Amino acid sequence: MSAKPLAEGQPARIRGRTAVALAVVVSFWGLILVDEMVVNISLAQIAEALQLSQTELGWVVNAYLLPFGGLLLLGGRIGDILGKRRVFIAGMALYTVGCLSRAVAPDAWPLIAARAVQGTGAALATPCVLALILNTFSEGPLRRRAIGVYTIAGGTGAAIGLLVAGALGATGSWQLQMLLAGVIGLALLVVTPAVVAETPRQSGRFDVPGALLSTVGLVSLVYALANSTGDGWRTAPVIACYATGVVAFALFVLVTKRTREPLLDLGLFTDRTRVGAYLVLLLMPGTQIGIFFFLSQYLQMFLGYTAMAVALAFLLVSVGMVGAAGLAARLEPRLGARTVVVLGALMLLGSNAWLMRMQAGDSFWTAVLPPLLFVGAGLAFTIIPATIRATTGVDDEGSGSASSVVNAVQNIGSSLSLAIIVAVAATAGAAAAANPPSDLPAEALDGFVFGESMTAGFATGGVFAVAAILAALLIRSRRSTDTHVAAPRQEEVRTNV
């Protein structure tokens, strides 16, 4: 990508080398999400092949999640200071090394170490993906279209990952499944220097205390959320991590206010529109995680679908998202981001409400197909304008930090919403098992319990959608104001404080 923003007056079409560069950077973002799905599906096979204990298997997941979630803010700041392309390539290289190393890991701890390297690389590269887009395209139709492409790459990653996992799973080789992302990463590493231009480096120094506090806070919070499913949230380590996270973030804010060149400009949070956009992005995962979580089980348990058939069914979400992305980008400047986000959240609310009515044995075509299409369209209508508003008014020098906040709130939102939905569903399932209908046959009890859990999960997804509508009300409806929201410099924030 060229570091010089394209002119506002150009038509909303991305051509030539810029289009190739955009495809490369969003491909890596999509690769991260595809690989995450492949790893999750391959865990059972890996555990059997390497004779992993449940503790070791848990660390295969956490060794990636903790550095990925914990280092996002630092990764964005490093990109601002050292150059976003340079840090993007370094992160991509680390990620690729981790992917290749895990494929040849002989036992648990080399595999866990490789996953930690992979997570560190993802934390460095991910904020630079969106930051490179912001540095390349000035605010206007081209940036909206580029953010739409970025959103589609992220939104379709899970569905494509299911297909890839299903296809590779047939080979019976977990090493081959782990190797694929490394091979693609190598290809992207070769292409990136030729098509992606470097951005100007920002003079400054690293905020070491802020980096340590933000990393401790994010790592503690991500670990606590990842282990809060079921009764896990009641355990002493999880409670301690929640407390550590709160204290670390409180100290981070205090240190940031008194630091000349902080890790994160707190001015990003002084604008109502941007805060509303952050909240929408935080809540969005909760509107659809339960749909994927429960429908994958429903389609296999009650309709007899294979894993590959489930993956194909979930591609409908991608179809809905791709179909709606262009429309969402065009409507955002005309109707205002608030209106478009509310329309999208209403689609997601309707999808969850539709699925709540589903009964065991209902047809896929009438019970599942329509809400899946609306999920994809709803995600496009919410995520694209929210991302646009979250990054509007951010100058090139702070685009890495601003992008890392977008990634961080989405990452935390995914962990938080999954923990809440699983906890609510488990409570509903326990209540159903304890008080089943008196005339329910014994062989139907498991299906009844699952159905009650699933309904509770969809209801919780609807609550997240309602919360997103309320958060969207913070976004200013006046389009002229929205277009020129600027993040105050840190000096201004300190003066006001």
UniProtKB/TrEMBL annotation:
It comes from the Bacteria. SUPFAM superfamilies: MFS general substrate transporter. Signal peptide: none annotated. It is found in: Cell membrane. Keywords: Cell membrane, Membrane, Transmembrane, Transmembrane helix, Transport. Pfam families: MFS_1 (PF07690). GO terms for cellular component: plasma membrane. The keyword Cell membrane applies. The keyword Disulfide bond does not apply. Residues 21-479 form the Major facilitator superfamily (MFS) profile domain. This is MFS transporter. The chain crosses the membrane at residues 20-45, 57-75, 87-105, 111-134, 146-168, 174-196, 208-226, 232-255, 275-296, 302-328, 335-355, 367-388, 409-434, 454-475. InterPro entries: MFS, MFS_dom, MFS_trans_sf.
